[in-house]
Design goal:
This is FAD-binding FR-type domain-containing protein. GO terms for molecular function: oxidoreductase activity. The chain has three domains: about 45 residues, no CATH class; about 110 residues, Elongation Factor Tu (Ef-tu), domain 3 (Beta Barrel); about 130 residues, Rossmann fold. It contains ten helices and 13 strands.
């Protein structure tokens, strides 16, 4: 038992036929009291807070490394009072980040490289709305990996995936490295990634470190990570350890803003041979009807033509059964030149005209 922000505040201990409930375990002392009542031995608390803080930090670093966030993983590892084990881990992560001899202000050279990252060429930037743009990138580097490893008897598992972009912003509060890490789910397919192309739909935030850098610098080359799993499909419900497997009759997707980019990946797994170029186990495919509720600001409506096409294909495996678009009031920040922002009414009107002409789509405006 221990103090953890994410732990439940009650424990049930079975001792013979006795079930005892212990609630409001909100401190290390309370945890020790429970352990003493159950076992008869009170655990020592000397240095317990420090040990638990180290364990939480180690767990956070483990997760950061698993999703290829090297800057995030290095945060706090450079403490002069760190243990020898932490210093050894620091050197290991620094080497993966491309700094085997210590951090500098410059990005690692392509020759040294960054573990699990490759450089992509930024081919074009297309404004979609006044808030969002489509970034098209390409790469011929075979080390870019694949979202769906296969071969040698390995059949791909359906999943959604993302890539991490390194924004070269220089010194920052997120870690000691000269970049910040941001995850983006591509609009393009895994098949296109394997061909060396990717489309990223990115919303620009006025105070966003990564998006402001992208919009301002328009870099010729960008570091992207190999694909990282986001969600197992159709693992929307846990599989039972025994008994029949639960199969949902339908799936309701609640998405907002640029979160709409996850939908293409889900739909591609409903028809993997045509959409992705390889088969997956039929019992792993999300073949039940999908109902979509998408919320967007009226000045930042995204993927309208794609939404309309998915609605038209509603009776097929590649489409959605229904779509509800919720339009909320637009934000009106000034443009970069200080002039008032243009109205998003035309985009919202286009979305309404396009979707309301379809029998399985509707548009609602909220306050």
């Amino acid at each position: 038992l221990g103090l953890c922000d994410q732990a439940p505040a009650a424990a049930v201990v079975r001792r013979g036929r006795i079930v005892s409930e212990h609630v409001e375990i909100r401190s290390l002392e309370a945890s020790a009291d429970v352990a003493a009542r159950v076992t008869g031995v009170r655990p020592a608390l000397d240095g317990a807070s420090g040990r638990m803080a180290e364990l939480r930090a180690a767990r956070a670093r483990e997760h950061s490394c698993s999703v290829l966030h090297w800057n995030e993983a290095l945060r706090g590892l450079g403490d002069p009072l760190a243990s020898p084990a932490a210093r050894a881990e620091l050197e290991k992560v620094l080497a993966k980040a491309g700094y085997p001899h210590g951090v500098t202000e410059a990005m690692p050279s392509p020759e040294v490289g960054i573990a699990s990252y490759t450089q992509w060429s930024l081919d074009s930037v297309t404004e979609v709305t006044r808030h969002s743009a489509m970034y098209r990138l390409s790469s011929s580097d075979p080390r870019r990996g694949t979202p769906h490893p296969r071969g040698r008897g390995l059949m791909p598992e359906p999943m959604t995936w993302h890539t991490t972009l390194l924004a070269e912003v220089g010194a920052n509060a997120e870690g000691p490295l000269p970049w910040v890490e941001r995850d983006y789910t591509p609009v393009s397919s895994a098949k296109e990634w394997e061909s060396g192309r990717v489309d990223l739909l990115i919303k620009t935030y006025p105070d966003g470190a990564a998006t402001s850098w992208l919009r301002r610098e328009r870099p010729a080359r960008v570091w992207l990570s190999r694909p990282v799993q986001t969600l197992s499909v159709p693992g929307l419900v846990p599989e039972p350890s025994f008994g029949p497997r639960f199969s949902p009759a339908s799936v309701l997707l609640l998405l907002a803003g640029t979160g709409a980019v996850v939908l293409p990946q889900l739909l591609q797994h409903r028809d993997p041979i045509r959409q992705l170029g390889f088969p997956t186990r039929r019992d792993k495919q999300l073949r039940v009807p999908i109902d979509l509720v998408l919320s967007c600001r009226e000045d930042d409506v995204l993927l309208v033509s794609e939404l309309a096409q998915w609605c038209r294909e509603g009776g097929e495996t590649s489409g959605v059964r229904s779509c509800t678009l919720l339009l909320t009031a637009a934000n009106q920040p000034p443009c970069e030149d200080g002039s008032p922002a243009a109205s998003g009414a035309s985009g919202a009107a286009e979305a309404e005209a396009t979707l309301e002409a379809l029998p399985n789509a509707r548009v609602l405006r909220t306050r």
